[in-house]
């Protein structure tokens, strides 16, 4: 399943909904659905905040042993990387936690340049998904 997302904060909720709806249809465990939804939101938010892109391509792949969520964006000068987050006690509110959330929830994740200024960032959650190829 692939969809495009305009680079607007308001579309993160739609992206979460896409993942949640697709995985609920497969009757997957609620905690797995929530983790996949949260990871996709974090990847999409990173693309939104750290690139200059006309649209973000989002994808959800269901495989027998894994769920893969990914985003492809344009204009990422450097690869996404774990950083030192801003503490919650500081104002404005805490930032920099997104990839730490992905790291904690995903079985594995990564990023690669896919040419012409595009970057592909993905994360997988390993789980047995009945009825998938």
What does this molecule look like?
The chain is α+β, with helices and mostly antiparallel strands and 133 residues long. It has a single domain, classed as Histidine kinase-like ATPase, C-terminal domain (Heat Shock Protein 90, 2-Layer Sandwich), CATH 3.30.565. 32% of the residues lie in helices and 26% in strands. Strands 1-2-3-5-4 form a 5-stranded antiparallel sheet, with helices on one face. β2 and β3 form a beta hairpin. Keywords: Kinase, Serine/threonine-protein kinase, Transferase.
Write the topology of this structure:
Blueprint: E1 2-5, H1 12-25, H2 30-50, E2 56-62, E3 66-74, H3 98-105, E4 108-113, E5 118-126
Antiparallel strand pairs: 1-2, 2-3, 3-5, 4-5
The CATH homology group name = Histidine kinase-like ATPase, C-terminal domain
User: Structural class, from helix and strand content?
Assistant: alpha+beta
Number of domains: 1
How many individual helices? 3
Quick summary of this structure?
The chain is an alpha+beta fold and 133 residues long. The chain is 32% helix and 26% strand.
């Amino acid at each position: 399943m692939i969809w495009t997302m305009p680079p607007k904060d308001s579309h993160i909720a739609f992206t979460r909904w896409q993942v949640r709806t697709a995985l609920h249809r497969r009757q997957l465990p609620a905690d797995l659905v929530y983790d996949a939804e949260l990871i996709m939101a974090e990847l999409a938010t990173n693309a939104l905040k750290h690139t200059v892109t006309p649209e973000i391509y989002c994808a959800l792949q269901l495989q027998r042993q894994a769920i893969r969520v990914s985003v492809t964006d344009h204009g990422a000068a450097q690869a996404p990387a774990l950083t030192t987050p801003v503490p919650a006690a500081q104002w404005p509110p805490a930032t920099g936690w997104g990839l730490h959330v992905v790291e904690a929830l995903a079985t594995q994740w990564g990023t690669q340049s896919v040419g012409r200024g595009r970057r592909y960032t993905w994360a997988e959650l390993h789980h047995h998904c009945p009825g998938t190829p």
